[in-house]
Structures are given as C-alpha cells and as structure tokens.
Amino acid sequence: MLGNIENPGGVEPVSRPVYFLSDSTGITAETLGNTLLTQFPQSTFDRTTIPFITSVEQAQAVVSTVDAVAARGVLPIVFSTVVGGDIRLTLATCRATVVDLIGTHIWQLEGALGAAASGKPGQAHGLGNAARYQSRMTAVEYAMEHDDGQSLRALEKAQIILVAPSRCGKTPTTMYLALQHGIFAANFPLVEEDFEREGLPEPLKPFAEKCFGLTSTPQRLSQIRTGRRRDSAYASLRQCSYELRSAELMYLTHGIPYLNSSSVSVEEMAATILQRMRLKH
Amino acid sequence: MLGNIENPGGVEPVSRPVYFLSDSTGITAETLGNTLLTQFPQSTFDRTTIPFITSVEQAQAVVSTVDAVAARGVLPIVFSTVVGGDIRLTLATCRATVVDLIGTHIWQLEGALGAAASGKPGQAHGLGNAARYQSRMTAVEYAMEHDDGQSLRALEKAQIILVAPSRCGKTPTTMYLALQHGIFAANFPLVEEDFEREGLPEPLKPFAEKCFGLTSTPQRLSQIRTGRRRDSAYASLRQCSYELRSAELMYLTHGIPYLNSSSVSVEEMAATILQRMRLKH
C-alpha cells in the first residue's frame, strides 16, 4: 500500500493539465510557466503548448479544448502571454486557473514609462531587431566552423574561447552562447600533448585573455566518455583524472578562469561565463 | 529640429535602465521582461542582467547599484524572478519600478494546486530532470554530426529532417530544436542534381514522412549568399530563384510540409515545425 503512504488522502495522483498559450512562439509562456511550476515539485504536469493564437476564433477553439479537458475532472492551469484584448478576454473564459503573464504586469510598466502598451502580439522571439538577429545567426555559423578546434583561423574574431579536455561540455555551451546571446564563441580541445609541453597551446597564446576553461569530475567525465567508447583508455578513470588535473593546473598557471561543468546546465554555464568574462549580450 | 518634433516635450530621450535580477541564470527574467518591453517600442532600454543573487548581502549590493543609477535621475525598471522571501524583500526596497515576476503569480498557483511553493531558487534552467537534460545534450551532438548531410548514417534516428537549398536556415533551426527542445533533428541540403532527378533524393526516400522543407524568397536568399560569395553564380538571383522553385515543387509533389524562412526567426520556425509535425517536446 505504498501508494497510500505517499498519498494519504487515498486519491490517485493525476497529472495536472497545463497549457502554455501564446499569440507568438509560446517560448515566454513556457519559460515563466515552467519556472513557476518548479516551485511545486510534488505535483506532476501534462504540458501542451499552443502557439500562434491570433484570432478570436482560434481562441474559442482553444477554450473548447481546455474546457473538454476540465470536464474530465481536473481543472487545468493555463499560462497565457497573449497581448490582444479580445483574444485575452476570450481565453479568460476557460474553465481553468488562468495565469495572465502579460496583463498582470503591463499596467505597472505603463505607469513607469508614461505610455500605453502597443497591444501588438509579442515580438520578443520574432526577427525584431534585424541586426541583432543577423548577428546571432552569424554567431551560430561561426560556432559551427570553430567547433572543436576545427579551424584555428579567425580565432581573433572570437569573443571567447572555451578550452577543455574532450567531453566537458564545450560544444553545447558554445552553441548556446551563440544561439541565445549572439556571442562569437570558439572552442579548443585540450589533448595529451598539450599537457606535455610548457605553456599554453600555441594557437591560444595570443588570446589568453579570451580563454575560459571547463573542467569536470573524473567520475562524471569517465561516465560520459564510456557512453561514447566503452572500456577504452580514453574513458578510464585514470585518464580522465590525469587530463582534468593537468587542465586545471594549466588554467591556474595562466590565470584562465574556469568552471566545473559536472553538475551545472549549459544555461547556468553560459550565465556564469557571461558574468565572469563581462560579456555584454 | 527633428529632435523636437519626435520629442515634443523637448526633453532629451534617455535609455531607461533595466535590470533583470535572478537567483538563478536570469533567463526567465530576461525572457518575460523583454517580452513586456517590446510593448513599448517608443522607449529605449539599457539592459543589465544580474544572475545568481543567492544571499541577502548580494541583494543589498544590487540595491546599492540600482539606487546609484536611480540617483542620476531616471528611475530604473527591475524585473525579478528571485524566489526566496528575504532576498525578495531586500530587492523590493530598490528605488525602481520593481516587477516581481514570481511573487505576483505564485499565490494563484498555490490556490490551484492546494500546496505551498517550495521557496527554493528556480531550477527551470538547471539540470532539473537529468534524463531530459541528457537527451537535449545528446540531441545537440546528433545535430552537429548530421548537419548539412555530413553523415547520412542514422537518419532513421532523426525525429525530423530539415530539407532545403543552401542558406535557407536549416542549421540554426536544427540547432535550436536540439538545444531547446531535445529534438533529434538532421538536415539535408538540396543541390542542383537533386532537382534534375525524379523523386526525392535517394537518402530521404525511406523517411519522407519525417521531412520538413524550408524555402525563402529569391531576393533574400541571394542577399545571404552574396554575403558568403559575392558575384558568384551561386548567389545570383537567377540561380536562387531556380533552386527555390524546384525545391517548392519537390515539397508539393511529395506532400512535404514547408515554410518560408525569409521573414521569420529560428524561434518562430521551431515553434511552427513542432506544431505542424506534432512533435512532443
């Protein structure tokens, strides 16, 4: 009767239906909605995103969908970032807890800025500032071309060079910095011969102040490498330990800031790197 | 005196200082804050993100920074996603318009779920669900390996294959789907010889139902290609027009859904693709 111990009321735990509704991509609704939901770790949620709700007719269809789910007995939670008045009023009629992420805050900003909100659908994830968008796309291209030390040309263009032994998280972090923040990020893999020589690897020497190191724990690194090449020397705890120790020594010797990636996400690494390298994004 | 026409009050327009404050990465504060700010296109903003505010002492230092800026004459706007009560109370004392993105909504969810919020710093962008995080990282790796038709092995593992002529936006869209949504996305470049043959390109034939096409306008495509190879046949309006027309014909003939990428962002493309391909993320 473990179920009853965990759930003393005796009611079968059910996933709460959650809807993220948007007149645009739904990214903002998902982001704040999920942040709020992490405050309730005891509950489980069944999430659906409905983007591009741009007419009252579409909103009415969404209300029907949500109401049909509510009729099954569990009141859904709705997070909405819809801006337009008519569509918002329609969605507000849902049989659900409707959390209006825009309407709640907009009056406060209208007061602060002394201006009325435009009322147009969110453009935060559209092309918006075309120059900024283009620079993000160029940064992705740059990151692809400079992944894993593939091309050492144009390192002078990099705003940051991530340095680490293989499988410490360089590539996804580089990609995240480029795609989300438009940062020109290159990365450079440290290999055994880099540790045998004195000093920084030759291609990095002119750019020491742009370098940021990643490290990990031997256990975590060995686990990840084993997923790639089981029972290899490459994945052995001994090899991982040697490479990480040598890399950390290199970072310390050359004043390169670094971060242990073993228990943080790419988002956390990117935020830390932007802050510590004082990169404006 | 154009300045005075645009700004009848005669006051020099100044950028409004905006702070995104967080006990975690700051991503959620930036995302909703920026969405709200796009409602005020007449104003300009000078944005600063301060992540990882996890103690009252740090919060006090932030308050001093914001107050010093306020003392220069323009009241800043502060968007906060800090969860912890003490830190929130400290930040609320800023000389600024403080928009509390968590506190405002949490009571509504506490009511709906019949439970108290945990009060722990946001984990939405941390490792959180380790399996889900790992699958996103694996998806990034997969996307890197299958970019631009590099490796046609393992296409059966793809949840989606983006198909398009060169420079229509396949790579950043693939990367976004992988990094944000953990979707296994491959991409396949259409080249001239693909248009000269009947049917789908050979490697795609078994996977037609996973294909999603991108197209563009000849003008936009030519402009992007010119940035890569000026005055080339590859970048000519005539060549771009031919490739796009042929690609669209291929999509239509084989019932491949497609999207014109010329005036939408990768975020919008990803949201549209997830919706139309009914990919659960």
Automatic annotation (TrEMBL), chains A, B:
The keyword Iron does not apply. This is Putative phosphoenolpyruvate synthase regulatory protein. The keyword Transferase applies. HAMAP family: PSRP (MF_01062). It catalyses: [pyruvate, water dikinase] + ADP = [pyruvate, water dikinase]-phosphate + AMP + H(+); [pyruvate, water dikinase]-phosphate + phosphate + H(+) = [pyruvate, water dikinase] + diphosphate. It comes from the Bacteria. It comes from Paeniglutamicibacter psychrophenolicus. ADP binds at A164, P165, S166, R167, C168, G169, K170, T171. Pfam families: Kinase-PPPase. Its EC number is 2.7.11.33, 2.7.4.28. Belongs to the pyruvate, phosphate/water dikinase regulatory protein family. PSRP subfamily. InterPro entries: Kinase-pyrophosphorylase (IPR005177), PSRP (IPR026530). Keywords: Kinase, Nucleotide-binding, Serine/threonine-protein kinase, Transferase. Bifunctional serine/threonine kinase and phosphorylase involved in the regulation of the phosphoenolpyruvate synthase (PEPS) by catalyzing its phosphorylation/dephosphorylation.
